[in-house]
p36
Amino acid sequence: IALKVKESGFSGISIIVANPVDIITRAYRDASGFSDQKVIGSGTVLDTARLQFAIAKRAKVSPNSVQAYVMGE
């Protein structure tokens, strides 16, 4: 994918949302040749949202009322 994106002439910022995000982000950056400023990994944002949703479902409350964060892979 990275090579096709580069070959297309894309000059924007790529945001990687996949697990394991750190490894895939690095591989994408290396394969594309884009700078660190042009490739961003979502970090634990997606995992945090999943955790908050799971807690909210179990507690039968709105996910907006749950404050929980995932740290690390």
